[in-house]
Amino acid sequence: MKQLMGVINLDHELDKLNELTYFRCGAAVPFASRYRLIDFVLSNMMRADLESVGLFVRRKYRSLMDHLGDGKSWDMNRKHGGLFILPPDWNDPTDTSQGDLQHYHNNLDFFKRASAKYIVFSGSQHVNTIDLQDLYRYHLEKGADVTLVYKKIEHLQPEHDLCRRIECDEDQQVTEIHHEKDHPNLYLDIFIMEKELFLEKVEYCIAHGESYFFRDVIQKQRHKLKIAAYEYHGYHAVINSLESYYKNSLELLRQDNYFSLFRENPVQTKIKYEAPTRYLESANVSNSLVANGCIIGGTVENSIIFRGVQVRKGARIINSVIMQKCVIEEDAVIENVIMDKDVHLSRERILVGDHKRPFVIAKSSKI
Fold first, then answer.
1. Which CATH architecture does the domain made up of 278-361 adopt?
2. Domain 4-262 grouped into CATH 3.90.550.10
3. pLDDT class of 82 with cuts at 50, 70, 90
4. How far is it, in rounded angstroms, from Cα 173 to Cα 139?
5. Which of 167, 134, 125, 137 minimizes the C-alpha distance to 150?
6. b/e per residue 117-150 (b: at least 16 CB within 10 A)
7. Beta bridge partner(s), residue 322
8. Which of 106, 145, 153, 245 is 20 to 30 Å apart from 303, CA to CA?
9. What is the pLDDT of residues 102-154, one digit of tens each?
């Protein structure tokens, strides 16, 4: 869609997944047996056929850049447009910008060279399957300056506490933006606006010493803008804590959740050519999500197993998330555990966490 470009802003996303974000930013955290959180927002943008996508990162982005490469997996390795990974680069001694406005100010060429007229902004912590073309059409129909995306949550969870809420009138015009924890309209960190208006507001904010675009423009200046609200109805999960990561991972073992996320909206990820998973005669696998390249000789129950994992004979994995290339030796027992990639667990070891607070093993550990 030549009229629309994308921005994925990771600057405001705090790395609160403890051991899982020691060596990577939150967007690079593995999810759902073969993906990373960044894959879901990139796939949404790929389906909308955006002209170009700019990814703004500040810290711990080596793993993310390795995963994304040139963007080929998302059809974004193009001669014109495509995926632009834009790490911080503050070489201008006269630059007075702060916060995420630094990203925008120091990459003005990215916006000005694009032919797109509108920009859709997104983070990576809200996993969803939004139709960005439908959002674009809705924004035009409303004649709004900005359109925010929200989802009405019937049963609020602890991970929703940090999320912004929006209130809107009968005409779906935003009247309030706040952090009241008991309000059901959850803002999904997605909005769309015209590029020229965006650039105008960036210059204004920098001149007035502001730091963050959403807070200082959309939230503080909401009475000066016509802000519409777009209600999203599809799959949604917030991954902003270790507990929310564990809970939402295991909830994908419910078929309705899994199909809601994947059936109608294919999600692209980095291509790896591996053999299918091999199940030995001693294997016993039930209600689990197992990626390719694994060798399973033990018992796996209610768990998510990533690529290349080896589960030796007699080992038991229950209610756990085991990431890439882990090795679980004979007769080891794992229950309520998140195991980061490249962990080697010796035989007959027993690791048991709580179902609400899982035991976490950091990347490349040997136990």
1. 3 Solenoid (2.160)
2. yes
3. very high
4. 11
5. 167
6. ebbbbbbbbbbbbbebeebbebbeebebbbbbbb
7. 305, 339
8. 153
9. 889 888 999 999 999 999 999 999 999 999 999 999 999 999 999 999 999 99
